[in-house]
Amino acid sequence: MIFHLLSRLSAKVPSVVYRAALIMKPQVVFVLGGPGAGKGTQCTRIVENYSYTHLSAGDLLRAERSREASEFGQLIDSYIKDGKIVPVEITINLLRKAMEETMEMDEKKFRFLIDGFPRNEDNLQGWTTVMEGKANVKFVLFFDCTSEVCIDRCLERGKSSGRTDDNRASLEKSLAVCTCDCDPILGLF
Ligand SMILES: Nc1ncnc2c1ncn2[C@@H]1O[C@H](COP(=O)(O)OP(=O)(O)OP(=O)(O)O)[C@@H](O)[C@H]1O
Ligand SMILES: O=c1ccn([C@@H]2O[C@H](COP(=O)(O)O)[C@@H](O)[C@H]2O)c(=O)[nH]1
Predict the structure, then answer these.
(1) Count of beta carbons in the 10 Å neighbourhood of residue 169
(2) At what angle do helices 73-81 and 57-66 cross, to 10 degrees?
(3) Cystine design at 181: which of 8, 50, 113, 120 (Cβ 3.0–4.6 Å)?
(4) Distance from the CA of 181 to the center of ligand 1, in angstroms?
(5) Beta pairing class for 53-56 and 27-33
(6) Count: domains in the chain
(7) Distance CA 83, CA 188 (A)
(8) What is the CATH number of the domain that holds 86?
(9) ipTM, two decimals
(10) CB-ligand 1 contact for 35 (6 Å cutoff)
(11) Contact predicate 109/28, CB 8 Å
């Protein structure tokens, strides 16, 4: 109905307005859980069966770290090795850009699984500041997994992943941050 109406109006309405009216507001599911809890694995399976796009905050940070011209490469590298949370402005910018690029390429791709973000209340505050009114967060999918299982899985993954944080020291730091800082986020949804 809306499409039909817009088609009829399109001759009179500037094309940018026409396109904007057709583009949906992003629908977001936050996917949380410790390192190795299985977030990435389950997101891949969801994408195979439902019309979602998987955006891993950690993957976006690792890609930015590898980008030659990146001004944040070294900073991201040291935060990841230390299992610490990268300043939220950097992560939000990467997420926002990835969502925009996805929707620009295909406006039907407006459902996103955001994996590994927000990790603490500061992250959530950053999201709200930048994305309030621009995206709808539907719910949080939380993978509850013991620290021992998380560590075992990531150490196994580390044999081939090449990830600088798939080692016991980084994992223990990351799990401590996750346990202390992720819990309040779950209470908010
Ligand atoms: N249900 C499961 N049972 C056994 N192994 C699993 C299960 N889910 C995932 N794995 C394995 O555990 C490892 C970590 O899984 P995955 O990368 O999906 O976790 P993650 O939560 O995305 O981790 P990270 O946040 O560190 O990226 C992978 O090697 C994966 O194959
Ligand atoms: O929102 C985020 C997501 C990730 N990080 C940093 O990256 C590593 C790895 O994250 P994974 O989700 O396990 O891929 C994490 O330990 C943080 O250092 C972040 O800062 N903010």
Answers:
(1) 11
(2) 130
(3) 120
(4) 21
(5) unpaired
(6) 1
(7) 24
(8) 3.40.50.300
(9) 0.98
(10) yes
(11) no
Mean pLDDT by 10 residues, the chain (189 residues): 40 47 84 96 98 98 97 97 95 97 96 96 95 95 95 98 96 87 79
Does some domain include residue 6? no
CB 46 within 8 A of CB 56: no
pLDDT of residue 178: 83
CA dist 77 → 54, 121, 141 (Å) = 22, 22, 27
For residue 57 and ligand 2, the question of a CB distance below 6 A is answered with yes
Nearest CA to ligand 2 atom 13: 35
From 144, 150, 153, the mutation candidate for ligand 1 (largest count of ligand atoms within 8 A of CB) is: 153
User: Amino acid identity, residue 106?
Assistant: D
Report yes or no on 17 lying in a domain.
no
Q: Is 79 in the pocket of ligand 2 (CB under 6 A)?
A: yes
**Ligand lying nearest the CA atom of residue 152:** 1
Contact 110, 23 (CB under 8 A): yes
**Which token pair is 112?**
């996103």
Is any ligand 1 atom within 6 A of the Cβ of residue 163? no
30, 41, 147: which to mutate for ligand 1, most atoms within 8 A of CB?
41
Question: What residue numbers bound the domain in which 183 lies?
Answer: 27-187
